[in-house]
Amino acid sequence: MHVLGVGRAWLFAHDCDPVSPQQQAAFLALLARRERGEPIAYLTGEREFYGLALHVGPATLIPRHDTELLVELALQRLPADAAARVLDLGTGSGAIALALADQRPCAVVHGCDASAEALAVARANAEALGLARVQWTQGDWWRPFEGQRFDLVVSNPPYIEDADPHLEQGDLRFEPRSALASGPDGLQDLRRIIHAAPVHLQPGAWLLLEHGSLQGAAVRSLLEAAGLVEVQTWVDLESRDRVSGGRANGVCK
Prior knowledge:
Blueprint: H1 8-13, H2 21-35, H3 40-44, E1 46-49, E2 52-55, H4 68-76, E3 85-89, H5 95-103, E4 108-113, H6 116-129, E5 135-138, E6 150-155, H7 188-196, E7 201-210, H8 216-225, E8 229-235, E9 241-247
Parallel strand pairs: 3-4, 3-6, 4-5, 6-7
Antiparallel strand pairs: 1-2, 7-9, 8-9
């Protein structure tokens, strides 16, 4: 489909059509890269997320459908007609920020990432989707937002242990390590985000974080220690802990 530039229905309807030598060569070149383990999303340069066609490349994490749970939970906390300030920390390809901006046109959405290369991908995606109003900032987690508060903060930060053998397997071998691994226990970046969150949340605002399936209890503990209330964990479609969050109390810190 990618090489021929056609849809699935056309492919099935024309299964006996000949292909040109150029098309065959292009297909075989992609096949060789896939045999070496390179993710299909990087071969085609595209991945669908929450109904949006996103460009992806080696500078960004490949959006996963598990992360759509984070978007759903965020949308439940964003009234459709509210001009809320929303921040996506570690935005990567811009998947979460763009999905929220697409679904909540009144929201003022910010996407932040430490990687200039990732932000270039996010900006290109925003332009292609007609969502250029999303504001992009380069920086390390909260650092660019000193003195600023938001009505909702979301993040899918790195949360894999540095020594996890899965980092040397499958698609993860090709994705940026900085977007995957986070210290000996995988919680290094989650700690940084949660510890500083209270001074960046409006009273009553939510912080929602994706994490590993075995990290729910640890993340809840961190959220409670930071003074957030209504702390809870939500499970994905396979009943695994996937997102935890809490709400700032009614008093600014």
